[in-house]
């Protein structure tokens, strides 16, 4: 793991719950406050809790207790017992949340693949959360075909050749500003990619999130980077799809000068938007 995240690791508490033949690893920051729900944040595909590395301190300073799992099959967590897509993560997450937090409803935030996972989780178990914030979530069914192309890297033996592909993929999908690719973003991305044990994911290209939202009664907010490569010129149809699907949709916030990994690229603006949504 890049050394820049070591201070966060040193301050975290770690908990585990069962997952398949191993453990689901949860990283916890902050202190529980009376009357304030735990804030559970699900990272994106081929990622880990480090997708939130630039948000943790601000959210803890705002008085929130954070519960950030490495999703099953990513980071330090074991793969789920069955399946290799978001639907396979629902039951390990449900069981983990109930084991750690009991029946207390949480505030749930999901980024990208984690947003899709959060939607499936609450559609199946709506009492788990009192509020849902979806960040760069796919599977809303408004884009006729994928708007970006990624390159393969696992067949390459040379680490520098691999890093060159990771740079390309960060630019193609994750970040709007190419100057942010080198350094921490690239180091985190490379580390996370090597821990991805969930191949063959396909649900992100469907409309399964849009079909799940009608079963989620709690308030739903959406936050996207203005230049998110998943949607590009489809932001208006996306907002319309949310309003049509979620019974209590509270609106979609667009963060300027940001791509898909909005919470990393424009952390200050994202943190403000997230705290506003959580306070709604």
UniProtKB/TrEMBL annotation:
Domain (AB hydrolase-1) ranges: 39-273
InterPro entries: AB_hydrolase_1 (IPR000073), AB_hydrolase_fold (IPR029058), AB_hydrolase_sf (IPR050266), Epox_hydrolase-like (IPR000639)
Pfam family, one: Abhydrolase_6
GO molecular function ontology, one term from the record: hydrolase activity
Top-rank taxon, per record: Bacteria
Organism lineage: Bacteria, Pseudomonadati, Pseudomonadota, Betaproteobacteria, Burkholderiales
Keywords, comma-separated and alphabetical: Hydrolase
GO cellular component: membrane
Identification of the protein by name: Alpha/beta hydrolase
């Amino acid at each position: 793991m890049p050394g820049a995240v070591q201070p966060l690791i040193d301050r975290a508490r770690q908990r585990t719950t069962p997952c398949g033949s191993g453990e689901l690893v949860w990283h916890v920051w902050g202190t529980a406050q009376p009357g304030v729900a735990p804030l559970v944040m699900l990272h994106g595909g081929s990622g880990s809790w480090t997708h939130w590395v630039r948000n943790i301190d601000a959210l803890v300073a705002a008085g929130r207790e954070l519960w950030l799992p490495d999703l099953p099959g990513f980071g330090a967590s074991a793969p789920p017992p069955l399946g290799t897509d978001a639907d396979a993560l629902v039951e390990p997450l449900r069981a983990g949340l109930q084991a750690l937090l009991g029946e207390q409803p949480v505030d749930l935030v999901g980024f990208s693949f984690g947003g899709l996972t959060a939607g499936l989780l609450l559609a199946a178990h709506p009492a788990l959360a009192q509020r849902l914030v979806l960040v760069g979530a796919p599977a809303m069914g408004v884009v006729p075909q994928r708007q970006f192309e990624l390159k393969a890297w696992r067949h390459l033996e040379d680490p520098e050749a691999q890093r060159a592909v990771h740079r390309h993929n960060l630019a193609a999908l994750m970040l709007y500003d190419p100057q942010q690719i080198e350094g921490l973003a690239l180091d985190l991305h490379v580390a996370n990619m090597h821990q991805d044990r969930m191949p063959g994911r396909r649900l992100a290209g469907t409309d399964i999130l849009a079909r799940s939202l009608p079963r989620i009664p709690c308030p739903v907010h959406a936050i996207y980077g203005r230049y998110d490569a998943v949607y590009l010129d489809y932001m208006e149809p996306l907002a319309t799809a949310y309003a049509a699907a979620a019974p209590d949709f509270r609106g979609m916030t667009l963060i300027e000068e940001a791509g898909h990994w909005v919470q990393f690229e424009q952390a200050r603006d994202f943190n403000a938007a997230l705290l506003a949504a959580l306070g709604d």
